Amino acid sequence: MEKENKALAIQDTYGERFQYCWGCGPKNKEGLHLKSYPSVDGETCICKITPDEHFTGGVPANLFGGMIAMIFDCHGTASAAWFNHHKRGLDFNEDTIIGRFITARLEIDFKKPLPMNKEIKVTSWPEEIGERKVIVNMEMEAEGLVRAKAKIIAVGVKDNM
What pLDDT, in 10s, does the model give residues 113-157? Predict the structure, then answer.
């Protein structure tokens, strides 16, 4: 079982103009402030969240599918940034401004409903790390069961985007 390194969240190292995402931006006052952490060995990234009840879906007491997609999206792009950064052997500390990645494609397999008021854990690992493209696989679990799986293709953003 991988343990996350909670010293520094990946999202906290985004450049100033990339810190306003509703899902994971640390400077979005209305946002969820999702945090993704590299594992101690750097081979996976982990995100944990217990969604508020107002994110219920069409089936009462289950999480809204769009929220599941948003969690995968935010965690997946943060993970892509980390895996690219880590592969290049760069330091990761409070002074880091990590390269920002955005979603080119997101595929989700919904396996089982996600119950409300339960902690969700998303674990990610790289499938492929290229110069500007990173493919990341993810699993979302709650109560010890895998509830959804996803694959994201994320691309690095140029500074002038």
Answer: 999 999 999 999 999 999 899 999 999 999 999 999 999 999 999
- The whole-angstrom distance between residue 102's C-alpha and the CA centroid of its chain comes to 11
Task: Tell me how far apart the alpha carbons of residues 54 and 72 are, in angstroms, rounded to a whole number.
Answer: 19
Q: Which of 115, 112, 117, 122 is nearest to 52 (CA)?
A: 117
Q: What are residue 94's phi and psi, to 5 degrees? A: -60, -20
Report the alpha-carbon distance of residue 95 to residue 135 in Å, rounded.
Answer: 26
Look up the pTM and report it.
0.92
| Contact (Cβ atoms closer than 8 angstroms) between residue 43 and residue 63 | no
Between CA 26 and CA 153 the distance in angstroms is: 23
| Residue environment code for 31-51, b if the CB has 16+ CB neighbours within 10 A, otherwise e | bbbbbbbbbeeeebbbbebeb
List Cα–Cα distances, 91 to 77, 84, 87, 95, 149, in angstroms. Answer: 19, 12, 11, 9, 30
